[in-house]
Amino acid sequence: MLSVVITALNEPYLQRTIDSVFDMAGGEVEVIAVLDGYRNEIRDHKNLTLIYHCKPHGQRHSINEAASLARGKYLMKLDAHCILGKGFDVILKKDCEPDWTVIPRRHGVIEDKWKRRPGKVDYMRLTCPDEPGDLGLRAKAWPEYRSRGNGLIDDVMTCQGSGWFQYLDTFWRLGGLDEKHGHWGAMGCEIGNKTWLSGGRVVVNKNTWYAHWQRGRKHTKDDITTTSRFYHLPRKVVKDAHAYAKDLWLNNKWPLQKRDFNWLLKKFWPIPGWEKWQIQ
């Protein structure tokens, strides 16, 4: 069975996302959804578990909590505003090794019609902290990498974090999600770095897809807000999370890693934005 974990805060499309999981799955699937600080009427399903928080605990905490209840052999994290391709679960399970993280091909969403918007994203790279405006490591689309791509199952440096798939045992073997990285943000970088640096592999599976409604962010003097989830974080908290991630990965301080960060840079070199970075 596949366990799909979803976290939500004031999400307008949670029901549609849950429906898409059950409607498009080709095998047995369960959904564990965390309503993180709000309540909403969600239609019942025999394989649906809902967790309600009175106050928001954050996306990483909520995913860890949901994963602790998962009964499946496989785990998929999905944002609460997504559409899935038919048979996504069967296709992802077919090509997934125990030390892999698999990313379906990503598209956008036409919001008013709630359907897939053509425009695939297969490859993403880590931004260099030295790039203007970057505090830490983020995932950024890397369309230029397509020419280096090789087939329908291909290595990717990192991912957005809105949808990823792996063995449930792998999720816990890598320590779950580290809440020192912050309540939300840079989750794909965390999952990707943990997978690669522990000796595993991150791949995109172009045989299936998910469509993700791209939310925006509002920046004010005091905090940063995600417009679809309304997570309000003081700027200092955001900066501290970026500083923690930068120190953890660039200085090879993650205790479970078998490869150093330079190994990852060399594997995907050359990487835009990292031209001045000294790799060994």
Can you walk through the features of this model?
The chain has seven helices and 15 strands. It has a five-stranded mixed sheet with strand order 3-2-1-4-11, sandwiched between helices. Strands 5, 6, 7, 10 and 12 form a five-stranded mixed sheet that branches. It has a three-stranded antiparallel sheet with strand order 13-14-15. The chain has 280 residues and is of the alpha/beta class. It has a single domain (2-268), classed as Spore Coat Polysaccharide Biosynthesis Protein SpsA, Chain A. Helices cover 25% and strands 30% of the residues.
List the helices and strands and how they pair.
Elements: E1 2-8, H1 14-24, E2 29-36, E3 48-53, H2 59-68, E4 74-78, E5 82-84, H3 88-94, E6 100-110, E7 115-121, E8 124-126, E9 139-141, E10 153-155, E11 163-167, H4 168-173, H5 187-197, E12 201-212, E13 217-219, E14 223-226, E15 232-234, H6 235-250, H7 261-268
Parallel strand pairs: 1-2, 1-4, 2-3, 6-12
Antiparallel strand pairs: 4-11, 5-12, 6-7, 8-9, 10-12, 13-14, 14-15
Derived from helix and strand composition plus strand pairing, the structural class reads: alpha/beta
Number of domains: 1
Strand order of the largest sheet: 3-2-1-4-11
CATH topology, by name, is Spore Coat Polysaccharide Biosynthesis Protein SpsA, Chain A
Distance between the termini: 43 Å
What can be said about the biggest beta sheet? Answer: 5 strands, mixed
Radius of gyration: 18 Å
Using the 3D structure, state the CATH architecture. Answer: Alpha-Beta Complex
Low-pLDDT stretches are 224-229
Superfamily (CATH H level) name: Spore Coat Polysaccharide Biosynthesis Protein SpsA, Chain A
User: Mean pLDDT, as a whole number?
Assistant: 90
Number of helices: 7
Q: How many DSSP-defined strands?
A: 15
Order of helices and strands: EHEEHEEHEEEEEEHHEEEEHH
Shape: globular
CATH class: Alpha Beta
Proportion of strand residues: 25-35%
